[in-house]
Amino acid sequence: xxxxxxxxxxxxxxxxxxxxxxxxxxxxxxxxxxxxxxxxxxxxxxxxxxxxxxxxxxxxxxxxxxxxxxxxxxxxxxxxxxxxxxxxxxxxxxxxxxxxxxxxxxxxxxxxxxxxxxxxxxxxxxxxxxxxxxxxxxxxxxxxxxxxxxxxxxxxxxxxxxxxxxxxxxxxxxxxxxxxxxxxxxxxxxxxxxxxxxxxxxxxxxxxxxxxxxxxxxxxxxxxxxxxxxxxxxxxxxxxxxxxxxxxxxxxxxxxxxxxxxxxxxxxxxxxxxxxxxxxxxxxxxxxxxxxxxxxxxxxxxxxxxxxxxxxxxxxxxxxxxxxxxxxxxxxxxxxxxxxxxxxxxxxxxxxxxxxxxxxxxxxxxxxxxxxxxxxxxxxxx
Length: 382
Fold this sequence. Notes:
Layout: H1 2-23, H2 57-69, E1 73-83, E2 89-100, E3 106-109, H3 111-114, E4 119-123, E5 129-138, E6 143-147, E7 169-174, E8 182-195, E9 200-207, E10 219-221, E11 227-235, E12 244-249, H4 250-262, E13 269-270, E14 273-278, H5 280-286, E15 293-299, H6 304-308, E16 315-319, E17 322-326, E18 330-334, E19 337-338, H7 342-349, E20 357-364, E21 367-374, E22 376-377
Antiparallel strand pairs: 1-2, 1-4, 2-3, 3-6, 4-5, 5-6, 7-8, 7-10, 8-9, 9-12, 10-11, 11-12, 13-22, 14-15, 15-18, 16-17, 18-19, 18-20, 20-21
């Protein structure tokens, strides 16, 4: 009996110890929170500019040109209907750019932007849309004038493309891929003659400013925001920019604008001669007074040169089996620009229209002369 009491007492003591050490143990205090990482709830500290943003001189030029010219740049949408193999109507839509010439709503663009269009729509920089009609086209230089009726138009300022130099900074504003009001920047890469599918552009402005589909007809600008060219052609894969784009010189366009607006076509000027290019070797062999120029071998009857008193050759000689007439006037310059071949004459003609007067410098025998010639129309020669 005594031993049983001892056992029970031991059991009670063990149970009490277990209860006090486990069941009644106070709950552990919550762990101290770890410092919050950058993804936690700690406040973010950022560094802000101490003053309003400023622009360097180059950025300011970009901004000034863009703000000045953008109101004059338009988006042109052309629509036409063609027919498929089963004579079903297939609507077609094209896009290009242009720029406002005057407050009467005349707009200059490329001929290929409006060619074949049955409906034209112009979207201004403020998103207003207006129907347009074609006023005149010059396919050979890829130029066209269209017109809208709209209030508050802002004309572009036309510059001078005569004295452009390679390396000069240029800007293009247009609507590439339909993205209105896009500006790109580059330099004049070269000035060269280029031939398009239906046009020939003398002294075209080559640029590395990004020009893409939709830029056609938009302005190429100098750093003063003056139009020096009309973006017209790109060289690249699948018709996209590869750093080689071309623009029609604005002086070429200015020479025909009056005709396009008043006549709807261009009175292409002509000197009215058939000529032979002369180099130093030929000049020495013929005993001419200058080392180079173009020798007049024939005058177009009733043409500009004949009316002005220029003289053609009167001595028949043969070059191979080809007869030519020697003894005519040797033209060495027109308006002070040296002339060495027919392309030089064509370059001068591109700056003029029929009815303009040019100053022709020539040698008649050993006598140097200057004669004013009023240009005729090209169809006189054809």
